[in-house]
Design brief:
Structural class: alpha/beta
Family: Belongs to the ROK (NagC/XylR) family.
Order of helices and strands: HHEHHEEEEEHEEEHEHEEEHHHHEHHEH
Distance between the termini: 14 Å
Number of strands: 15
CATH superfamily of the largest domain: ATPase, nucleotide binding domain
Radius of gyration: 23 Å
CATH class of the largest domain: Alpha Beta
Largest sheet: 5 strands, mixed
Number of domains: 3
InterPro entries: ATPase_NBD, ROK, WH-like_DNA-bd_sf, WH_DNA-bd_sf
CATH topology of the largest domain: Nucleotidyltransferase, domain 5
Function: Transcriptional repressor of xylose-utilizing enzymes.
Mean pLDDT: 91
Protein name: ROK family transcriptional regulator
Keywords: Carbohydrate metabolism, Xylose metabolism
Length: 371
């Protein structure tokens, strides 16, 4: 049966149709793909016997025999995403439906050392052995890093947030033996959001964490630019000759809107900052947030002017913006000469682990497209 599937383009078309449409009947599949009912039935049976699709019950009858619903089996394959930041390590296991099956997050400073990678390997193996008895179902491992990645997704072309050597891919390969590739962390988070929100049109994602990054996507595909530096929104100049950025230049968004700008006043605790802000008892904290959102509004308006699309606020700060989104929309709209409706500004779906999920999505997407 596997041999039959490998040779059948129709099976691939049916599988992708079900994946994109969640559930469908034999008749809908045949009509949509332009294939006969007997051919559809034969391929559905092959897919079902191989464990890739399943019977999900019956549709409500509109008269006559009820049609069977088919859907993809989410746990027929898995992918793992690893997000490495300056001070944290996150590992996420997702299935084909992007459900987070298991995850772990450790506070551990990154260091390119045997000790660090032994911890990474140990946590990785815990998740795999606990959840995937058949290791052949693991498609691969996406690794999100706060760096600029080369086109081969194995080389790092620019790294200042965390120090990485030129042979970092080989270093990883001593500890991870499944297929793996590198991805920019903010691009990965943006990809996760576009898939989760099922965005068919263009969307810009702004990651507001210990550094600022982002992604511009259209139909769930990232635009990387000529040098894979697309989405480096943190280095837009918003205040000429302003504060010094870690890149060495002045006035970058990163110098004004990282999470650290807020947590510097609560000993590194972002939750505490927003708890105090929500209480309304500390005028100083309110002023800090007011200044923060002033600068953020400039950046969001710039993105709207450049791309004329929805803008998603993500990252650590974005996860807290739901309570303040209406006020922020109003603030950003005042900068816009064309519209007063700020509903294009959205809050992220993923409150945590977006970068890890997005890095894993690469392998899910490859599996679906090449089925």
């Amino acid at each position: 049966m596997e041999e039959y599937l490998n040779k059948s383009k129709i099976s691939g078309d049916i599988f992708r149709f079900l994946y994109l449409n969640k559930q469908s009947s034999r008749q809908e599949i045949a009509q949509s793909l332009g294939i006969s009912l007997p051919t559809t039935t034969r391929n559905l049976n092959a897919l079902q016997e191989s464990g890739f699709i399943e019977n999900a019950g019956e549709f409500q009858s509109t008269g006559g025999r009820k049609a069977i619903r088919y859907q993809c089996v989410a746990n027929s394959r898995y992918a793992i995403g690893i997000d490495i930041t300056r001070n944290h390590l996150s590992i996420v296991l997702i299935d084909l439906a992007l459900n987070i099956i298991d995850n772990t997050r450790l506070r551990i400073p990154f260091h390119e050392s045997h000790d660090y990678f032994c911890i990474l390997k140990q946590e990785f193996e815990k998740i795999v052995s606990k959840n995937i008895p058949d290791r052949s179902k693991l498609l691969g491992v996406g690794i999100a890093l706060p760096v600029i990645i080369g086109e081969d997704h194995k080389t790092v072309t620019y790294a200042t947030v965390i120090p990485l050597s030129l042979n970092i891919y080989n270093f990883f390969s001593d500890y991870i033996h499944e297929p793996f590739l590198f991805f920019n962390d903010a691009n990965s988070a943006g990809l996760a959001e576009s898939w989760k929100g099922d965005y068919k049109d263009a969307v810009a994602y702004l990651s507001l964490s210990s550094s600022i990054g982002g992604a511009y996507m259209n139909n769930k595909m990232i635009y990387g630019g000529s040098n894979n530096r697309g989405g480096e929104f943190g280095h837009m100049t918003i205040i000429p000759h302003g504060k010094r950025c870690y890149c060495g230049r002045y006035g970058c968004l990163d110098a004004y809107c990282t999470a650290n700008v807020l947590t510097d006043f609560t000993e590194g605790n972002l939750k505490e900052f927003f708890d105090i802000l929500k209480s309304g008892t500390n005028r100083g904290i309110q002023n800090i947030f007011e200044d923060y959102t002033d600068y953020l509004a400039i950046a969001v308006n710039n993105l709207r002017m450049c791309f004329d699309c929805d803008v998603i606020l993500g990252g650590n700060v974005g996860a807290y913006m739901a309570d303040y989104i209406e006020d922020f929309r109003e603030k950003a709209s005042k900068l816009n000469p064309f519209e007063r409706d700020g509903s294009y500004i959205r809050v992220c779906h993923y409150r945590t682990e977006a970068a890890a999920v997005g890095a894993a999505i690469y392998y899910i997407d490859q599996f679906i497209q090449n089925f």
